[in-house]
Amino acid sequence: MSNYQEIVNLNIGGTRFSTSWHTLTWVPDTFFTALLSGRIPTVRDESGAIFIDRDPNLFGLILNYLRTRDIDLNNVNIRALRHECDYFGITPLSRRLALCDEMNHSSCGDVLFYGYLPPPLNSPVPSRHNSSCSRKSSTASTTEPPTNRTHSRNSSLDLRNVGRIAAQEPLSRCGRGHSRTASLGNADCSRGHRPPEINTWTDSMKVQIIKAHHNWIAVASTHFVTGYKLTDACGWYVVFQSPVQDSPIDRIALNAKTGGTGASTSGATASGTDIMLGIASGSIVRLWAFSTHGEPVRRTLIGTFNLGVRVEHLLFVGLQLVALAGGGRGSKCGVWHTSTQHWQVQDVAHLTTHDTAGSFLLLGTNTGHINYIDMQKFPLRMKDNDLLVTQLYKDPNQEPITAISVYLTPKTNLCGNWIEIAYGTRYGSVRVIVQHPETVGHGPQLFQTFTVHQSPITKVSLSEKYLISVCSEYNHVRSWRVTRFRGMISTQPGTTPKAAFKVLALEAIAAQPHNDCGPYGEQDEEQIFIQKVVPDTDTLYVRMASNGKRVCTIRSVDGSAVSCFALAECEGALRPRRLLLCGHRSGATQIWDLSAAIDRAAKTVQSVQTAGGSNSEDKRASEDDATVPDGGPTPDELVRLLSACDLDATPVAVPQSPNRPIQAP
Fold it and tell me: Which among 160-164, 334-338, 560-564 has the top mean pLDDT?
């Protein structure tokens, strides 16, 4: 008992503290009870005080709690204080801080949280002996009827049940029926609580790719794809699942509302087809059609095609499935046409980038050319087996084209030959070309050139109100306001950028195709960037593409890391919804409704810009304030993100500024 009255002198990070033995040890089984009992070796300073290398400010709060059993949390970083309590083993205070911290987080998310899709119940495990369903003949189409609704836990390991699910398995938008513990199944797996065969394929359950079209989404894991549909009455529910693929899935493409155009299978027609799904693994492309109007859902394998080289892009242009591969002279374009049931592959040398506009597929090349393929005329060229790749424009300096964006103006619908194209080059140039009725016979004309970037352009977007470009220097963004007269772009000499900011993303180059920062959104609406700073993070930052301002911050409701994301424009009973779809390493998909947040952010900027209308100086100040690039993570947020990221192990793309060629006079 005499020890309880003994004074203990402490040196915490260079700051001296004096307290009693009893104060430090009244909480049992802590760092201090072990220290003062001799179970932990002590280090003393020159005055004999026990030295502990921790934060003195946070320790002062903990010591005050040990003295008074009370604590003042005003202006205190609760997470940092909780970390110190865990270090010292002050369990009573740590539990209180944990509750305070969790009050700001919920498994139901915040007001933007829109839905939770758990990992598929019949999660398949690939097997060399049972994967015959993925080795169908490339010439014959087969119809595979789904099995019944009944699923057992063991049946998830049986490939015979994969992809043969019932048409409609209801899933609540709020995730009702799924506990928070269940949503952390991937974490349990890493701790060894699942069977060994499941542990082997834990990473294969991670959501790799998400694609959306209308009110449908396709969620791809490593070896299979699950399709969901959104309705106002039922929310999200499972509709189809693809067969298991032997090889990992690299790309997927989804096309909803195919107009009932069925796939011919052995002389029969799969009538009522409303979903088409393309999957690329290496150079192999498989295409399925799903008829979801009746019970059960019918899945038809249209065909298995070989591009000859690894597929880098897979997309639908209208009803045509298009597979593209770059790589200089080895570039290829493969097209499957719905009505002719024909797969065609053609070399398209020097392919570097692409974009779509209606029925046109535009191709940028390494030689400075912009070519196009008109998909509507594709069936007319079956006899000569030619996709008719036609040159549309040639860069005046023959700079390699690395990004392209097409904007179809309201004039396009009236006369059909008014088109605006923005493109970027490897040397940092951004150019806008315009074709209008007066110059149809001469092709598009160069309208304006910007040379403010010093690194290769990776993305460019031309919309109704803005021209946005992104270069490879840590996703450095420039945005310009586009002035229009009667819907047509008009000349504004001396145009200056509206904003300049960076959308930092420290992710491996190989993972970026499925985590493209944007910009996302329709060309007549406010576009946004999605910023994922580090690879293993549960936090995304949504920013306006026009000025970099933050729209909102998205955090995983279960703490699992975001593995991929996509934006979906979904129809609703009252208004369209802009949904952010986040795939997670746990195999779950979390959905966030950004519509209200984007509208609110856009209105805020507009109100700031018009606030000083009567005073020119106030107006300029308001506009300058509105364009401050403060939308990304704050220094504190960035440090917190980077603290969980091994920068030495993270491949960071350091841009190399190419030697810019001399501009032609």
Answer: 560-564
